[in-house]
Amino acid sequence: MRAKRSLKVLLPILGACTIFVGTAMASNSVGLFINGEALNLKEVKLEDGKVVAPVRDLAEAMGARVTWDQQTHSVNIQTVNTKGMVEEWIREQGNEKSNYYFDGLFVEEVNIDRDSEPEVLAKIDGGVHLGNFFIFDKQSNGSYKLIYEQPWHVVSWNAEHFDIDGMNPLLNIVTRTGGTGVDIRESHLMYMDNSGVWTEAWKGTLKDVYVFQDKYRAIMGSYQFYDDDGELYYWQTEWVASWEDEKMDADPKTTLKIYTIEQGEFIEKQ
Fold this sequence. Notes:
This protein has about 270 residues and is mostly beta strands. It has two domains: about 70 residues, no CATH class; about 190 residues, no CATH class. About 5% of the residues lie in helices and about 55% in strands. The chain has two helices and 20 strands. The strands form five sheets. The chain has an eight-stranded antiparallel sheet with strand order 13-14-15-16-17-18-19-20, with no helix packed on it. Strands 9-10-11-12 form a four-stranded antiparallel sheet, with helices on one face. It has a three-stranded antiparallel sheet with strand order 1-6-5. A hairpin with a 4-residue loop joins strand 7 and strand 8. The N and C termini lie far apart (about 65 Å).
């Protein structure tokens, strides 16, 4: 049976946490607090006047990712998913440089290609219909490069598990646009091709609401991928109603469009 490794770190080098040494010094009682919250670690103790704690537990509690390299016998602590690091990347590589509203920054790691390293996705919510969207890819030297940026207000993203030969996984990005009396949500199915270029395979309307005077026009859409024949089915329902009593001018109209994949794009079948 392989022995369990116990990796430890001297806490004085980590300025982001607070150390409280209890009054019962004979029992080496030590309290750890990160951003004012107590961290319950049983192995924290005093050794020769220094505070020592397991590096993995401490680093992960501070939002980092810890990996052990057996070949080099080294610990790798990655903090690339922290907002501060991503904010620095955006300032250095973004198209607008310093003109971003970083209070609305959200960051997540998502594997959107077929290598072992996840990409870093980031969005900034600047208002109801305002925002920015970024994708960073890890380079061979360990740095992260901005490979895609759009002035989008992104509502959500999620990886789609479509089985399409020769294509990287698709990412569904839902964006929101509009203005006074207009609210539009669209789905963008995107992927990274083999040359590293970020490509949009399909775009469809999920919601399009328009209010003008006493009329209310709405379009609602949805899609489904059919694995058996590799086709994308897209439904769209449209109706017009009175704004005051919500009575429809006519029965809702539903249409169906079918798309096939050709050279990395979904093309509507005629």
